[in-house]
Amino acid sequence: MLLSKTVLPNKTWTLRSFPEKQFCATENAELLEEDLDLKNVDDDKIIVEVHAVSIDAFIRTMLDSNANPAHGGVGLNCPIPALGYGKVIRGNDKFKEGAMVTGLMQAAKYSVSGGEGMQKLVSLPRAPSSVFLHQMGISGIAAYIGMFVSPRKYPRKGETVVISAAAGAVGCIAAQMAKLCGARVVGIAGGEKKKEFLLKELKLDGAVDYKSTTKTVAEQLDEQCPDGIDFFFDNVGGSTLDCVLQRINLHARISICGAISQYDSGKINNKQSIVGPAHYIKVAETSSTISGFNMMHYQSHFLKAIGYLSWHYYRGNIVCPEHVEKGINSFAKSLEMLFAGGHCGRLIVDISGDIE
Length: 356
What we know:
Keywords: Oxidoreductase. The protein is of the alpha/beta class. Helix content is 25%, strand content 27%. It folds into two domains: 7-134 and 321-350, Medium-chain alcohol dehydrogenases, catalytic domain (Quinone Oxidoreductase, Chain A, domain 1), CATH 3.90.180.10; 138-314, Rossmann fold (3-Layer(aba) Sandwich). The strands form three sheets. Strands 3, 4, 5, 6, 7, 14 and 15 form a seven-stranded mixed beta sheet that branches. Strands 10-9-8-11-12-13 form a six-stranded parallel beta sheet, with helices on both faces. The protein is globular, with a radius of gyration of 21 Å.
């Protein structure tokens, strides 16, 4: 038995109120500190000692009063979910005590669930468990599906590829995939720090700073993509998508992974408020295609994706930096940080203190 106690002191982030617009850690979330009495937990539930969780944009889509059709919703005073990994300290028929698991769990020290959406965490040689929160997990798989599976044709050598939110976890992985295809890659991100990351660490061919006070995104795209754009991997939507559409070439491919510009405003769950592309007619004029994807509809490709990602991980061809915040108390502020753009790569909350 891993449990020597019948009561565990727990900390769980719950939804105090629905965000009106931007998520506010001090107003919309509450850290509930209470004992977890094992006698009150149903026998078919598992208890996971959470080691770490990732801060993903989709979490924000679940916090509005109207539930998101793809991700679901969180009720008031209910635990906020997060993707993470940890150790099962009380198991059920599916997961035994001592097993390491990964998947959707509660943003808490101890997560209680039936084990839905979880799977055993595979141990890879010379790889930390945290890699399953980005490169070997949802971020890497999403980049793979959006780059190689969903579009009618993946980037070719010599083509110009633009990636929005290129300094984030999915974006930076997708950008490196495009480079491996031999494409000329331009990343869009906010601020000089991220621009430097794209050019010096990822070695992209160009970078656009959407926070620039001297040049618009349109002006920068004209400079960085003088011959037009052949492939666009979009994580942002809104006006950024519109800017790119005006510059696409014949038979361009636009792969829609997300629309983070619409998430923190709450617009994503109010379809009448979503800022859509005014220049969609360019798709018809250039015989181009737009393909969107929900990665859970492509599970048959996951194994191949992991094989590709593993190959390039061990050869150092694809990297994803980790920005680690310490302790469960930092979760809500980290969710704020995600939309403020204060990090590069995958934003992680280290709950157990195991990440170096």
